[in-house]
């Protein structure tokens, strides 16, 4: 009897140790709302929407302690539409993220799979679109700098450093996976951030070659590409400063494109979206943002973005204002009200119109949207 009790105690000890060293976490976020838009293809619209601030998702995140400060890590994250139950990211099962790798307390982490680029990782959190305080609709026109993570990078290897007194850096390379065209639809990016007390700053660079084109549908950026272009170069930087209950920030980014043939849905070869002649293009974005906590539960946030663009023989100028107020009902659940106004000028006869991210484009140069929504996290 004593031997049996001793054996049971030993097994319990090992089971407890194994549980402490290995973990798998189920997590998620659901964002559902009602959105009014004054003009979508020439008509007013009131619609049920999913993810108008933060994309609805669920995921699995796990780690295994390998000893000596080394861990095996993985993340599998699914995006979906709460209104229809359909998969997001063009029907991919784990379209938001899917990677596995090794993490070291001393050397950082290296991961492989479908992952976010360095613009998303470093500059995104300093822009209103990369946070819960603005999200999808607060993105710069067409999400041209990918701060709202409209696309992820397939076939990628990513490195992220440990925190060196507030300084972190990293980089990503996405393989084309094409035996006959090493650079056809490849991607790479680098970035760094620094945090010191109330100050946060970051900078990043990203380059895509032949993303969204029909040259290589198994490459780094495919069906969810924002642009179909021979080359895309994006760089950006931002700074945020917190004082008391307030936080203010500024973000600059620029995207340069060569041989641009499509924007939006046309980038993946469909008939919708915007088709262009194949010339060069540029988007330069200037964003001022801020938020204020009236109470621990009640926040007000906003941003103004000016985008100076050049494409298809015209020079559009975009002005966009985003405002959001949110009230936390608990640590997990909040309600929000968000409004967005966008106006574009200088479009000539290009056919470009106002086009708030996440919605159908207006038939005119202005568009207004308002969303009331509920978010819960688990």
UniProtKB/TrEMBL annotation:
It is a multi-pass membrane protein. Keywords: Cell outer membrane, Ion transport, Membrane, Porin, Signal, Transmembrane, Transmembrane beta strand, Transport. CDD domains: gram_neg_porins (cd00342). Gene3D superfamilies: Porin. Residues 7-345 form the Porin domain. InterPro entries: Gram-neg_bact_OMP, Gram_neg_porin_domain, Porin_dom_sf, Porin_Gram-ve, Porin_Neis. Its main location: membrane. Residues 1-20 form the signal peptide. The keyword DNA damage does not apply. SUPFAM superfamilies: Porins (SSF56935). It is found in: Cell outer membrane. It holds the Pfam family Porin_4. It comes from the Bacteria. Homotrimer. PANTHER family: MAJOR OUTER MEMBRANE PROTEIN P.IA, PROTEIN YDDL-RELATED. This is GBP family porin. It comes from Caballeronia udeis.
